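Appendix B: complex inputs.
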Amino acid sequence: MQDVIRKLARSNYWQLIYARAKDLKNICLFKNEMDFTYLQLNLLQWLEIYNSLYTDLYMREKYISEEVIIDDIRTDAYLLYKSKKKDSDEKEDKNSKKQIDNDGGIPSIIFKSKSRKKK
Amino acid sequence: MSEEKLKTKEEKERLKVEFRKTMDKLEKTQDVERMIKDNRIHFKVKDVDYKVRKPNYSEQMEIEKFRRKKNLEFMADDTMLFRKQWVEIYKKKGIDIDKMGDTMRSLQNKINSIMLRLAKTQNDKDVEKLKTEIVQLKDEQASINIEKTDLLSSSIEDVLNINVTSYYAYIVLERKEGDNWVKAFKDYNEFTNSRDTELLNKCLYNVNYLIYQPLF
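Resulting structure:
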């Protein structure tokens, strides 16, 4: 079942409906507007994932291609690579921010405001 | 029969199989698309229209009450044990279920490391090789999981789950009579004692796609 849900989620039809439904309120993905079934939630999750993959493809991100998107195993591999990369980038950002914050080891200075005026 | 004719016959047979496979896939896709459109799933058994739908608030309360009652009933039964208790009993008999979990996790680590290599691979031959390795490891992981699930299938948690799903199915299953939808079974007893296995199987199959289960 998962393979069919993923096939639908990456199809032009569902991607178009999904993208338009985000912008236009009168386009609905399903007959029901709430109380979603497991299948519907599953499709929504994959629509979001494939939407981000098509964005990556459009942005010419590294290691993503049409061949990757139509292949479930390669898509999973790309998603894992992307999440690991995001983790390591965030870690790097944190470390470099720490270094900038305390560049040279000077303690931070607190400026006291002089709000009280002398009479 | 000449070799050429034999080849054509084989080719025709292969094309037939391919065509059937493609049609099956298309049918499956259309089926899923139909199931997705609404939060009620329609199906036919022996030309009778049935549907399963999401339960309303009072029905949900009824299902929860059923779960509580069954849980108490199982806990009062000395032959019924929790998963943890089964794990301990199996351990004494030389079957280590915790170790199965460890093996599955270590297989997942292996899968992840191959996946990371696959993500950066462009060469078709290497891609196919890595994909085959992943599929083999996933198969290995799945067979351990099946074994583990099978060993724990008598646990209170698992039996309770099956019972609640079955009660859920009874609550939300409706049959079309003229223009109206009516309950397919008058009570749970009638549902569980029904000999219409086709209806029960189709009903439970569809109910599983209604009930939310965390995906990741």
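The mean pLDDT of chain B is 89.
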